[in-house]
Amino acid sequence: MTTTPVRQEYEVQLEPLLSVPVERQLPLAQRLWQQGWLRKAVILLMIAVLWEAVARYQDNDLLLPSFLQTAAALWDGLITGELPAKVGVSLVILLKGYVLGIVLAFGLTSLAVSTQLGRDLLGTLTSMFNPLPAIALLPLALLWFGLGDNSLIFVLVHSVLWALALNTYAGFLGVSETLRMAGRNYGLKGLRLVLHILVPAALPSILSGLKIGWAFAWRTLIAAELVFGASSGKGGLGWYIFQNRNELYTDKVFAGLAVVILIGLLVEGLVFNTLERLTVRRWGMQR
User: Fold this and answer.
1) I need a surface site. Which of 18, 35, 136, 196 has the fewest CB within 10 A?
2) Which of 33, 133, 79, 94 is nearest to 264 (CA)?
3) pLDDT score recorded for residue 230
């Protein structure tokens, strides 16, 4: 019987590769252009320049004030404290309706993934109320709740609830059966299964629903405040826009609209992008 000889192990020391030149660093302009915030700032600057050019060409401040006039009106509203006060009123009402809509949507979708009755209830209610514009319910809300914040909160809940519920439920349905069985093997069921298994796995869809619900709620609030402010003599940012439109202060109207846009950009960039970066992107669930 012959045995195979054992080859002696050895290690080769590799010399550093010094003959290949090191790649030069990218030019400063190219490195700066890779920054997303800078590209977006350039787009906004181009829009401002185009706006200023069109306004100067038209030469009618009543129809279209220039960008510089709007910026001056915005600065004046911030310095006097009028715009921050109006924004504060709007955001307080918005947060109340938004949070209440999130709670109701979570309860409805939790019931839907747990029982057949919940699925039928969610399907029926979303088919009925999701196509219904939230602002169309404002006259009914004023009749039920009177002139107060509750009327606005009612329409905000309607604007948030159905979009978030549909996205959350779709995310729950997309959770793999393997994850569900793993949760059941650990004894999870009911609300614990939803919190520990379904919510983390469906988080991309939930975040999409939160963003859609935020957008619906924000624009519904501004539209509702136009009517609510005209009815009660007070209101937030929407009432500020409506009041200045009646007094033909078009630059202030544009300043109010600019604040609406800026708040939307800040919430999208600081809140939702941060949530996505810390959760679904960090976990590799989203690019």
Assistant:
1) 18
2) 94
3) 46
